[in-house]
Amino acid sequence: GTNLIANSSDIEYCKYLQDSVFSWLLGLEFADTGNNVNDTDIPFVLFLQILPVRCGFQGNNGVVTQVFCDNFGEIDTFETFCSVWGTSNESSSIVALAERAGVRTGEVITWTNSEISSIGINGTISEELFNTTAMIQESFTVQKANTYSFILQLLLILFTLFGLSVLRADAARLVLGPLRRMLKIVSLYAKNPLSPAPTSKKGKKGNKVDFEDNSLLNAGSDSDDDTSSKEDKLGNFETEQLISAITKITDLLRKCWGVAGAGIVSANLAREEDGQTAVFNPCVPGKSVYALFAFCGIKGFDHQLRALQGEIMDLINDVASVLHKEVYRWGFGDSGQCNKNLGANFLMVFRIGDVGEVKAKRDRARDVIFDPRRATKGKATAYRRKHGVKTIGAGGNTSVFSARSTVVAAKPKEVSNKQDPKDSLSLASLPGISTFTDRAVIGMLKTYAGIYRDQKLLNWKNDFRLGAGVGAFSVDMIFGMDAGWAVEGAVGSEYKIDATYLSPHVNMASRMMSACKQYGVSILLSQAVGELLSEIGKKKLRHLDTVTVKGSSIKQRIYTYDARHKGVDFFLHERTEDQADIDAEQYTSSIWETDPDLRAMRQHVTDDFVEKFNAGRQEYLAGKWPSAIIYLKAADEIMVQNIIDQGYFDDELNDDNPEGIEVLEVNVRNEMGDGPSRRLISVMEQEEGIAPPDWKGYRPLTSK
Question: Which residue(s) pair with 96 in the sheet?
C-alpha cells in the first residue's frame, strides 16, 4: 500500500517511502518474532525488492535490503544481518538465501504483491507495474508450529488412551471379566467337580455372595434403587446370567451325580479331540478308588410309604437334610459325599482317593520317613564320633563315605502280576487314616443324634397317619459301614446313566446296615472299619460277633457303637451351625471322650455290662455255649436294670393303673434289653444251647 501511495519520484515521496520501508524492516527485526538480534543472527526478512525504481534508496534494481546494508552496515547491530542482505540482488533465489541464512529451504517463503498504477517520474505520468517482493524465513514459526503440533498430538494420544481405557474398563467389566470367570469356573470343575460353588469377593454389605445370588446379576448397575422392578434388574448383563447358568448347571450335575459322577464331569470338561472340546460322553471308563462306604436306612419305611403316599418325599428330604449336613461337615476335607438315595436307604461315600494316587502318596511318605540316606547319614555320624573322623567335603572321599554306596534301601516287594493291585494295599498303612475314619464314623453318629433333635423330623410324631394320633411314631435310622476299594463310574447308556460304585465293599456296607435289625443296634461296622479307627475310638466299640455275610466267604468281626436315644434329650447338647463347624474343624481323637452327643447316646453302657458281654461272646466263639448263655443273660439283665435305675422310663412305669405297671415293665424290658446279647442267645438256643460239632468260631448271616 505504501508503494502505491508514494507514486512519484519527488523528494518528499521518496523520503516517505524510504522511512516507511526502513521502519518496517527494523520493526520486523526487533519485534517479538523469535528473530530478535539478541536471540539469533538470522534476519526475519531475507530479501525485499520494491519496483518500479524511482528513488535513490532503491538502488539500481529495487533491492532495498542491499541498500539498507550500504547505509547502515557499519552499525554492529545490523552487521550480522548484512551478511545475508548485502549479498542479495534481483537474481537471488530461495535456495541461495536459505543457504546463506543457515535455514532449511522449506522455512523460507516468498510474498509478492503486484498492481498497475500511475506514477510521476520527472514530471511525466505513466502507467507502471508496482511490485513488492519479500522473502521471509519462518523458522521460529515452524518451530512453534511443530511444538504446538507435538503437544496437540500428545494430548490427542492421551485423550485416545483415556477413551480406550474407559472403553476397556467397560469391556473388561461387561465382557472380558465375566468370560474369564466363566473359564475359571469351567477349569475349576474340570479339575475338581466337587469344589463348592465360586463366590464373589464382597456383596453390597461386605458379605460373601454366591454367583447364584441375584445381587451379582446387578453388578455394575448405575442405579441401586431398591424400588426398581425385578425385571429391570435381571438381564442387565447377559454374561452374568451365563455365569450363573454355568454355576447352576455344574452344581446340579454335582448334586445329581454325587462323588461318583465327579470323574464323569471332570473327564468331559477336560476332554478334547484335535484341539476341540469333544462331544459330551457320560459313559467314560470307570476307575478304582479307595473309600469308606456307609449305608444309612430309615426304619419302618414301608409303613411310612403307605401312610404318607406322595408326602413321603418330604420325610425323606428332611432326613437327607440332617444326614448330608453331618456327612459333609465331618468328612475329612471334602471327602464326605452322598452318592445316591435308594428309597429308604442312602449310600454315603468318604472317598480316600484313586488307587494309583493313594499308593503313590503312601510311597512318597514312606520314602521321606525311611529315606536310606538319612539312615546312612546317622550311621556315618556315629562312626565319625566314635573314631574321630572329620567330615570330608564334596570333593573328598574316605572309606567311611565309600561305605555309603554299599547301603541299599530296602525296596518294597513288587506285587505279583497275578495279584490284584487294589488288594495289595492295607488302608491301615496310610498316614492319617485313623483321623479320616474317626471323622467318618462320627459323621454317622452325629446324624443319629441329629434326627432326634431336628424339629422338622420331630414334627412327624404328630402326624396322625404315622402315629395313630398318640405320638408313638419317631423317625429311626440304622447305619452300616465298610472300607475298601470300588470301581467308580457310570452305568447305563447314552439315554440314561447312574454314577455309582461297584464293589463287594459297597455290598458289605449294605449287609452291615441290614444286620442292624438282627442285632437290635443302630450302627454296625465291619472289621475293616474297626481296624482303621484311632485307639480311643476302638475302645468305644463293642465286638458283637464273628460272621460271614451272604455272598462272601471271608469271616470278620463286626462292631457297634452302643447308641440309644430313649431317655436322652439331645436338645440339651444342641450346637449352632457355626459351633458345630468349629467342633468338626478342631477334631482330635479325644472327642470320643468329651463330645456331649457321643457320651449321652452311650451313657447306658457300664463297665460291668461290657465285662459280662465280652465274657459271654468269648465263650460263644469258643464253642462253650452253656456258659456263654449265662454270661449273656447276665449282661442283658444288667443293661435293663441300668436303664430302669437311670429313670429313662419313669413316666411309663409310674402309671396310675396298677394292673398296667407289670405290662409296661415287660414292654420296657423287651424294648430296652441288649439286642446283641439276645441275638446270640437266640442263635445258641436254636441249637439247644450246644455248639455244633463243626463249629469254627463264626457263623454265616443268612439274610441280607
Answer: none
